[in-house]
Each structure stands twice: as C-alpha cells, then as structure tokens.
C-alpha cells in the first residue's frame, strides 16, 4: 500500500468550555456567602467593577461621591455658627466654667479658648455631637472564652507548684473540643521527665474542674465524674455506667440484674443519666452558627395563587464603571495596558450578565417547584408529591444538571417554614391500588405518626406498619419501613416495648 500526503476537509462539531462559561456554571451552585466572597475577589482584581450603593436621598437626587453634603443647622443645635465655638459660648451653653469641663488643664477662659475649639471639634467630629464614624458595635462585644482559656484560669488557681502547673498545661493541650483528654499520660510523663504517679495525681485534680466531666478519657469516666459531683455515684450507678453498651441496646432486663435494682429504680437512674452532658467541652466551642438566608420567598397572593420572588438581600448589585474606562483608556501607554483594560471591561460585563442570568434561572426553577408542590404549601407534608430533577428540567426547558446546580444549597422561605430546594425532590413510592404515587417524605411522616400513636400493649412491628400503610394505599416493603424508621432514630418494636413497659411500671 503506497503512502502519500493528502489534503482532507472534515466538518465536525464540538463544545468548547471557555473559562468564562465554566465560571458561569460555578456561579449557579454558589451559596450566598460564596457568591459574596467571589464578587469581592473580582472587585479587588478588576478596577472597572464596583458595588451599587443604594441612595438614601428621598428626592432621588444623586449626590456626587467626591463632594461632601453641605452641613445644615437648626436653631436647636449647640453650635450654630463658627462663633459658637468660643470659650464664652461653650461655658454659657453648658452652664459651667471651662475649669469644670477640663479639670486636668485649669486656666483662664482666654488661654483655653483657641485650643478648646480645636479639641472640641476633633472630639465631636467637626461639630457633630452624635457622630458614629469609625465605630463598630462588634468591637464592644465580649470575646468568646475558649475551652483552653477556661481551663487555664482554673489551673492557675488549683496548682501552686510550678512543676504540677506545667503538667496540667500539657494535659490541657491534650483536650479535644468535647472536653475529653486524648493525650497519653505515660508519654507526657516521659516527655517532662516526671513520674506517671505525679501525672495521674495532677490529672485527678484537673478532673474536678468545672464543668464537671472535663479531662475524662472515655464516656463512662465523663459520666462518672458528673455523677460524683452530684453525689450519685453509688454501686448501682457504677454498674450502670460500666455497662453503657447494654443501655444503648435497651436491654433493661439485664441491667436490672446487674445493678440489683427494680424497674422503678432503674427508670430513675436512666433519668439521671439523660440529664448528664456527654460532651462538656462543647459549651466553649465558640462557633457561631451561620444563619440561613432564604434565596427565594413564597407568599400567598390574593387570588389564591403563589407569589414567588427573589430575596433582595441575596442579590449582589454590581456595576461596570464605563466612565472610568473612558477616562483611563486614552492614556494607555502601550498595547499591554490596552489589552488589560479591554479584558477588565469584558470580564466586568460578563459578570453582570452572569449574575442576572443566575437570578433568572433560580427564579424559574423555584417557580416550577412551587407549581409542582402547590398541595404541600396548602396542606402540609402529607401532600408532598414525588418529584425529580428531570421533571422540573423538562418543564422549564433546561438541562437536568443545571437544575441540580441551582437547587444545591439554596433555600426557600414559605408560609410553612424555610426549606432547602432539594427538600422538594423526593423519591416515589407506588400506590397499592395503582393510583397516584406517594412521596417518600410523606410516607416517613406517616410512619412516625403511627409509632407515636401506638399503645404499650400494642407496639407495632415493621410488618404491622406495612399492613397499615397498604390499607391506606401505600405499597411499601418491610425493609423500606425499617430503613425509614432507623433514619428517624426510632428503635425497633422490641426495644420500644421494653421501654414502654418500664415507663408503665414506673407510673404504677
């Protein structure tokens, strides 16, 4: 076969993901905090971007940013004119002498007059008696005390010996955020050149710190320390704490035999255990939870429909400064500077268009979700319909992956509360009579209601729940009921029967 060079013409199609297109896709799945952080970074690197500042002028007049608004005075102001800053005027206004105003710098009014004017103006913000420029209310808030700070204060009071204080500091370094001591005492003794007995002695003192339970090495020791403070660590309670695995399995019959108590005493002991704190150090975690900000708000309209609006607080307003671009571009010295300005303008225009498109996409997806789940908004979770991403994507003419990105980490404020958009997408469970399918979330709520309403003498097994659900039109398997029950942290029927009998015996 002969080899020869040839020219061939082929036609093909391909999708090229430009960096701007990839960034547009990322914008869809950004949360509010992530979007604000991204915009701040873009404004920092792009001189043509700026945030839109709302104007406070009720008349709608635009006040130039480079000019200060003229001062206005009223007859009730303390300092109407420049002449009002004289020493005599100040003394007359305050009805006292300047020596009382400035006791650390006594002198005549004539000598203090010029300096006093400058001092007063500087202190009051050029004559303003209520200026708050530069004041941050957060600076006045108390700093949260960490677990290490709290423990260090008690170490300083509990130990006078420097060696013991050094050991206690090493033990405090081994505390995790829950208050448990995870460090190896033998390793600490070896590193500090101390004896294991000395470390154990210091540890026993540290275990008396507040809150009770700190410096415990496991859950049983943590509970024992708290019970000892309450003077409730008797032999029966020690046996109960030593067999927490039986308590987790709700094996009350075995626990009664091990602890040597009857059902009533065991119930009292369980009540005391529940009142203890298994993680005493979490009180000093200091982590403030982030407030959930709804991206979409849904309200009932007068005609019975639903009004879907975007939350204005989650919509960043960004402007492109074309005036600055027009002023700077003629003074570009070389082609590199011109290319930089052109790229900045292109990126700025792209960002504003992408943010606008992001807002429209979120609103479109949220509106379709509200339309699909209208019954849930009216009647509650029992009327939540099965819904998947493809159904919404086909209804609004978008790709399924786009809907998935839009619904990630977005929240909707409804008359029934705040829900993540993903909450409205639930699996479908077939109806026993061939009717309309049921939502898995609605079935979970039904299972929880059946278990809450069960009686002590008639605890429902998973098979009984399956039969009751099928009678109400839900075709569900027993293993699905067990999975939903375990997902809601509901024990099995055997464990529930033991607990209910214990409660009934205590009630008698």
Short key terms for the protein model shown above:
single chain, 508 residues, mainly alpha, four-stranded mixed β-sheet, two-stranded antiparallel sheet, 23 helices, 8 strands, extended
Mean pLDDT: 79
Largest sheet properties? 4 strands, mixed
Strand content: 5-15%
Q: Major sheet: order of its strands? A: 3-2-5-6
* Uncertain stretches of 5 or more adjacent residues: 56-84, 108-112, 124-132
Helix content: 40-55%
Question: Between the first and last Cα atoms, what is the distance in angstroms?
Answer: 101 Å
Rg (C-alpha, Å): 35 Å
Shape: extended
Tell me briefly what this model is.
The chain has 23 helices and eight strands. By secondary structure, it is mainly alpha-helical.
Describe the 3D structure.
It is a single chain. 50% of the residues lie in helices and 6% in strands. It is mainly alpha-helical and 508 residues long. The chain has a 4-stranded mixed beta sheet, covered by helices on one side.
What topology emerges from the helices and strands here?
Blueprint: H1 19-29, H2 32-45, E1 49-51, H3 87-94, H4 98-101, H5 109-123, H6 147-158, H7 162-173, H8 185-192, H9 196-206, H10 219-229, H11 235-241, H12 244-248, H13 252-259, H14 263-274, E2 296-300, E3 306-310, E4 318-320, H15 322-328, H16 335-372, H17 374-379, H18 389-396, H19 400-407, E5 411-414, E6 417-420, E7 428-429, E8 438-439, H20 440-452, H21 462-471, H22 478-487, H23 493-507
Parallel strand pairs: 2-5
Antiparallel strand pairs: 1-4, 2-3, 5-6, 7-8
Helix pairs in contact: 1-16, 1-19, 6-7, 7-9, 8-9, 16-18, 18-19, 21-22
């Amino acid at each position: 076969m002969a080899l020869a060079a040839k020219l061939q013409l082929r036609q093909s199609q391909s999708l090229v993901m430009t960096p701007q297109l990839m960034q547009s896709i990322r914008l869809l799945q950004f949360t509010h905090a992530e979007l604000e952080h991204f915009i701040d970074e873009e404004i920092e690197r792009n001189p043509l971007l700026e945030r839109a500042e709302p104007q406070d002028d009720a008349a709608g007049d635009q006040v130039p940013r480079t000019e200060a608004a003229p001062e206005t005075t009223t007859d009730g102001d303390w300092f109407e004119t420049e002449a009002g800053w004289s020493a005599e005027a100040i003394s007359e206004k305050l009805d006292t002498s300047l020596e009382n105003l400035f006791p650390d710098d006594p002198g005549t009014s004539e000598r203090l007059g010029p300096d006093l004017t400058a001092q007063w103006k500087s202190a009051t913000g050029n004559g303003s008696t209520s200026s708050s420029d530069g004041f941050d209310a957060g600076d006045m808030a108390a700093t949260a005390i960490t677990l290490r700070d709290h423990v260090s204060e008690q170490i300083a009071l509990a130990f006078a010996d420097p060696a013991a204080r050094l050991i206690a500091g090493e033990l405090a370094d081994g505390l995790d955020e829950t208050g448990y001591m995870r460090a190896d005492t033998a390793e600490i003794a070896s590193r500090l050149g101390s004896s294991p007995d000395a470390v154990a002695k210091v540890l026993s003192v540290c275990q008396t710190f507040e809150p009770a339970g700190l410096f415990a090495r496991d859950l049983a020791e943590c509970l024992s320390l708290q019970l000892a403070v309450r003077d409730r660590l008797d032999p029966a309670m020690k046996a109960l704490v030593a067999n927490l695995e039986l308590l987790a399995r709700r094996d009350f019959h075995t626990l009664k035999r091990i602890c040597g108590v009857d059902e009533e005493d065991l119930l009292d002991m369980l009540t005391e255990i529940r009142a203890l704190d298994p993680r005493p150090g979490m009180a000093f975690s200091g982590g403030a939870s982030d407030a959930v900000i709804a991206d979409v708000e849904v309200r009932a309209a007068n005609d019975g429909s639903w009004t879907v609006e975007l939350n204005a607080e989650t919509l960043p307003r960004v402007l492109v400064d074309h005036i600055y671009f027009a002023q700077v571009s003629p003074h570009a010295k070389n082609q590199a500077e011109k290319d930089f300005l052109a790229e900045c303008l292109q990126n700025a225009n792209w960002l504003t268009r992408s943010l606008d498109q992001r807002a429209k996409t979120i609103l479109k997806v949220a509106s379709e979700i509200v339309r699909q789940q209208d019954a849930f908004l009216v009647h509650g979770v029992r009327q939540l319909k099965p819904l998947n991403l493809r159904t919404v994507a086909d209804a609004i003419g978008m790709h399924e992956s786009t809907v998935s990105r839009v619904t990630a980490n977005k929240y909707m404020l409804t008359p029934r509360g705040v829900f993540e958009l993903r909450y409205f997408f639930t699996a479908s469970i077939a109806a026993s009579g061939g009717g309309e399918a049921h939502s898995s979330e609605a079935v979970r709520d039904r299972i929880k209601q059946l278990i809450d309403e069960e009686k002590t003498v008639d605890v429902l097994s998973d098979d009984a729940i399956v039969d009751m659900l099928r009678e109400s039109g839900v075709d569900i398997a027993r293993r699905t009921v067990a999975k939903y029950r375990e997902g809601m942290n509901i024990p099995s029927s055997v464990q529930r029967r033991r607990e209910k009998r214990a409660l009934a015996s205590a009630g008698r």
